[in-house]
Amino acid sequence: RPKTLEDQGPHIINGPGYTRIVHCNQPHMHLAKVLRYTSNYVSTTRYNLITFLPKCLYEQFHRVANFYFLVAAILSVFPLSPFNKWSMIAPLIFVVGLSMGKEALEDWRRFMQDVAVNSRKATVHRGDGDFGRRKWKKIRVGDVVKVEKDQFFPADLLLLSSSYEDG
């Protein structure tokens, strides 16, 4: 994920009494550390390859029923238990594994939707008088975006002009 202001901790721009400076159609001005804004990249996924196993296991055993059966499975390992250890461990592994598989599938679908949204294209002013197509995730603060009728647009936009008579 791209770095954001939130990742860097408190920032002078986010403090009380400060304003934001936006340089229209001058993307190089926003590269300065003081003016670095959040990107337009959309991510709705819960996990990545590194965090999937620990986060998902935490969520699974945060549920009371799964935690109860985990404790019962641990107790069944001891020789004093009246049950065979696999009679408790196998169903727990099956249920938790199935739930984790479902979580992985749902998160993969969210990831694919994110890729589709981030890859959509918008018409953006290049600065030389022409408009060009750019992916939504590449749009930055200060870009002039041309939006046509019934078209989706990629971010919060400030209306500069309208073709309607009432403006």
TrEMBL record:
The species this protein was found in: Noccaea caerulescens
Any one Pfam family match given in the protein's UniProt record, by short name: PhoLip_ATPase_N
GO biological processes: phospholipid translocation
GO molecular function: ATPase-coupled intramembrane lipid transporter activity
A single GO cellular-component term on record: plasma membrane
InterPro entries (alphabetical): ATPase_P-typ_TM_dom_sf, ATPase_P-typ_transduc_dom_A_sf, P-type_ATPase_N
Protein origin, superkingdom: Eukaryota
Entry keywords, A to Z: Membrane, Transmembrane, Transmembrane helix
Stretches that traverse the bilayer: 64-80
Record flagged with keyword Transmembrane helix: yes
Domain (P-type ATPase N-terminal): residue spans on this chain: 22-89
Protein name: Putative phospholipid-transporting ATPase 7
UniProt key word 4Fe-4S: no
PANTHER family: PHOSPHOLIPID-TRANSPORTING ATPASE 7-RELATED, PROBABLE PHOSPHOLIPID-TRANSPORTING ATPASE
